[in-house]
Structure formats: structure tokens, C-alpha cells
Amino acid sequence: MLRLSWTTFTDRWALFLGAILTVCLGVALVQSSLLVLVSAATAGGEVTEAITLLAMTLAISAFLAVFIVSSTFAFTVAQRRRDLALLRLTGAARGQVRRLLLSEALLLGLLGTAAGVPLGLLVMRLQTRLLRDLGFVPAAFTPRWQDWILAVSAGTGTGVALIGVLAASRRAAKVRPLEALRETRAAARVMTAVRWFFGVLFLAGAIAMATVAAFAPPEGAIPLAINTALAAAVALTALSPLVVPLAGRVAGLLLRGPLGRLAQANLRDGARRSASTAAPLIVLVALLVAQAGTLATIAGGADRERRADIRGDLVVTTTGPSDLDTADTVHTGGVVSPESRVPITVVTRDEDGTEADEALATVVDPGAYAAIHTRGPASGSLAALTGDTIAVADGSGALGDVVTARIGGSERDLRVVAVMPESLSGGPDFLLPSGVVPAGLLATAPTETIVRLAPGAGPATVTTRGTVSTVDDWIAATGAAEQRTGTGIMTVLMGLSGLYALLAVINAVVIAAADRRREFAVARVTGLTRGQVVRAAVLESGLVTAIGLVLGGLAASATLAGISSAAARISGQAVLVVPWTLIAVVVLGAFLVVGVTSAVTALSATRPNPVSLTGAA
């Protein structure tokens, strides 16, 4: 079977080259993400914050590898129905057809893996440089090669290839050869029981996760956004053949003339081809729009939350406490609230050993903090924040608990006297009274002192060291910094993965056109010119692109609905930020990339003399 598979590969290398490319890129992306993640996890505390981000990157990479490779291989099998039918007519049994297809998948998986392993080293360098430039890892961070990654890469490449062909090979072997040759309804049926099952299953999962997102804490927003978008994308990809006939009818109403009718007929008759071409585009749009919308909605909600929370006029930024910490006659009637950030280590001891979690705590004057901030504790009181006490963020402890903390080299047991509410802006993990923090540590702590001026006093009356800005300017600067961080997160999560999905879109268009030479030749023999055939192919690809964009947008909408509900619950006001600029770029880019690729492949497919192709057929 392997020899026959190799012969088939050499005869139809153009069709299989795209499958090898998807395996190669998938292996490279998964290998790189896994090596960087393992290196970060074993590097120590300096890259602790990057581990979660890298784990999410690996999850997206693995999903895209499985999804894109599986759909590509299944598409290549569907494109060869007539070849497989001829093989059955010559005496091949169903089991032999399946073994042939699985052998081809194994061969293509091995070839893709062989190319993907060295490419993964280059991708790892690019990924590491990206993490360094965005500040997620230190400049000295260097991922290490692990010998066991070869086994993982080989398993990934061959595994996803075999998974992609497994279901398609069973379906292809079940179709009777004469039905496949005559393109009967049974042979051309796209919406199989498997498609219905997974489509409905993942759609239900997406709805469930979007519902859960409305009640999830802010830190769960990004993982839920990714999972909801992925589940919705898989569901709509499986169910997309149902949309193709509808799109064909809409196209028939909008498009007139022979080219429009030809594009409509091709779209209707090639439902499987159209759905397979749109599949990577659905995933790309869903992930990009959902992720960008989630980060923008959280950032927008955090900005509104800060503006509603702070009742102040100025912010003084210093290292260590400012000289406004004590009241003077200029500010009589005003409020000065110093907020210094210091490192803290929370120690947990049980029968399994000791666990230490590093965090940042904010040192405050409880009375001034309560006067400046409108958002009070969810339980307890800041008035009790004196002596060996602590206030914790929601989910970090319960009222009355005792927290063991290391602050400035000393360990203290602190009683929880207040639990702060959930916050989109993150908020401090812990609030401490100044009495539990060593003076030397406090003197070097970055500090923001929020000032509410006394009636009649103006900003010019504040003379102090440090940087003085208005509260509005400070909130805007904080929001801009968070926006940059969000852009960095988006770049790490979707940078290389998005490029992989985009290449998969191009690859799907190329594979779809590779097997249409005879179809294009017949159209030319019946009277259409070469230019008309190419324009009809480009028009058809535009309709398929529109299907992918609409379904990808629907998948992203499920995520945005859940995140918007969560933001409204936490902040108390409706928040939804739609990334219109990104959407416009994605829409224009999709039509441009798919249109150009379709035009180039159609020109290549129509280069031979049409009579020679129709005669050979």
C-alpha cells in the first residue's frame, strides 16, 4: 500500500503538496510553542506571568493544527471521489481503499513532519523574539531544545494526518463506485450524520460557554473567549454546507448575466468545495474578532470603572511616599490618599508541603482610601485595616481567614478584615496598612498619591516632588498602557497562529482549483472565453469568502455577547467594544487574498487547450 501511495503522490503531487504544507506549518507551530512553554515553566520567577499566555498559545496552535490539517486532508479525499470509484471498479475492496488513504496520510504526515521540525526551530526564534520585544520575557530568555520534542512532532504530524483522513476514508469507501462516477445524490451528500453530530455538539458547547462567561470572573474572560470562539467556529464549519445553497440563492438575486449564473451554479453544486474553502477563514475571523473584541471590551469597561471609582482631582507619581502624605493648610478640607505597591509572598502550608505565591500588595491609609474610592468592600470594612490585618481581592480568601505573608523578609500572620469586589481593572490583589510594611521597603515602592483638592484650591497650589497629572490624564495613560499590553497579548496569541490560518485559506483555494481543470475546460468549450471563466471563478471565490466572513462573525458574536454580559455584571454598566478597524482590515484582506489567489489558480488551470482536457476526460 505504501508503494501505491507513493505512486499516487507522484501522479497528483499538486493536490497533495497543500496537505504537506499544512502538516509542516502545524508541526512547526506546535513544536515551537511547546518548547518555549517548557523553557518558560522551568526558567524561574522572571517569566511566571508569561506561562499562562504561552499555554494559551500552545492550545490555539494545537487546535489549528488539528482543525486545518484534518479539514485539508478530508477535502483532498473528497476531491478524489472519481479516482477512488475507478479503483473500486477495478476490484479494490472497501478495506483496501481505506488502507490506501491511510497509507497516503501516513506518508504525507511523515513528509510534513520532516519539513516541520527544522522549520519549527526558525518559528521558535521568531516567537521568542516577539515575546522579548513585547516584554513578556526578559532579554536573556532563551528556549532550550529538548530531544523528546522529535517524538511529539512526529506524533503530531502523523496523528493529525491520520485523524483527518480516518472519517473521510470510511465515507469514501461506503459510496458505491457507480454512484460516485455518476455524481448521484448519495455520493455528493455533504451533510452526513457525523457533520450533524459535531455541528450540534459544538454549537451547544459554544452557547454554554458564552452563558458561563456572563458569570465568570474577569481573569477567566480571555480563556473563555478563545474556547467559545473555537467551539462556535467548529460548529459553524460543520454546518456551513447548509448555508451554501442559501448564499447561492442570494447570489442569484444580486448577480445577473451568464457569469453570475455560472458562479451561482458552481456554488450550489460545489457545496463541499465551498464549505472546505471557507473553513479556515471561519476560524481565522472567529479567533481574531473574538480575541480583539474581548480585550477591547475589558479595557473599555476598566476605563469606565476607574472613572466611576475615583473621586479625585490629581495624581502624584513618586518613588516612595510623597511629601503630601501629611495634611497641610493648603489642602485643609481635601483628601490625600497614598497608594504604594510592594511585593508580597503568600505562604500556604499543608500536609503536602509549603507553597509560596508572589503578588503585589497596595499599602494604603484606610480612611483616605475609602474617601477617594467609591467601590467599597464586598464584605468587611476598611476601617478595621489596622495592625496585623489585610484586605484581599475577591476569590483570594474569606472574611476572618488568616493569611501568612512574607513582606520585606519577615513573615507575619494577617487577619482578613475586608474582601474587595470583582473588578475589570484588576485592582489590587491585597490592601495593607502601612504598619506591617518595613519603612525601607516603603521608601523605595512606586507610589501614586491621589489628591482631592479642597474647595477653592486649584492644581497650582500642589507643590511636591514627583510627576503631577490630572486624574483624567492618569486614567487615560493607564488605559493606553493596558491597551498596549492587550495588543501584545493579541500579537502573541494570534500572530503566528493567524498567519498559519491565513496560509491555510490560500491553500484551500489552491486545492479547490487544482481539480477543476476539466470543469473550466468544459465551460470554455461551451462558449465562454478564458477571461470569463477566470472572472466567474473569482466571483465564486468572493461568495465563498462572504460565507466565511459571515459565519466567522457569528462565531465571534457568541464570545462578545458573553464577555459583554460579564463586563456589565462586574462594572454595573453595559460595555461592548467592537473592533471595527480590525474587522474592516480582515474583510478587505480576505477578499483581496482569496480573490488574487483564485485569479492566479484559475489562470493556471485554464492555460492548457480546453479541447485536450475535455477529450482526455
What does this structure look like?
With 617 residues, the protein is α+β, with helices and mostly antiparallel strands. 65% of the residues lie in helices and 12% in strands. The protein is built from 20 helices and 10 strands. It has helices at residues 2-11, 13-41, 48-78, 81-89, 94-133, 149-174, 177-182, 185-188, 193-213, 221-239, 243-254, 257-269, 271-309, 366-372, 439-443, 471-514, 517-525, 530-571, 580-605, 610-616; strands spanning 314-319, 335-350, 353-364, 379-380, 389-392, 402-407, 410-419, 430-433, 446-452, 467-470. The longest helix has 44 residues, at 471-514. The radius of gyration is 30 Å and the shape is elongated.
What descriptors fit this protein?
65% helix; single chain; 20 helices; elongated; 617 residues
Helix content: 55-70%
The structural class is: alpha+beta
Q: From the alpha-carbon coordinates, what is the Rg to the nearest angstrom?
A: 30 Å
Give the H and E element order.
HHHHHHHHHHHHHEEEHEEEEEHEEHHHHH
Portion in strands = 5-15%
Mean pLDDT: 80
Strand order of the largest sheet: 2-3-8-5-7-6
Overall outline: elongated
Q: How many strands, which pairing sense, and closed or not: the largest β-sheet?
A: 6 strands, mixed, barrel
Detail the poorly predicted runs. Answer: 184-188, 326-330
**How many strand units?**
10
Continuous helix count: 20
What is the first-to-last residue Cα distance?
26 Å
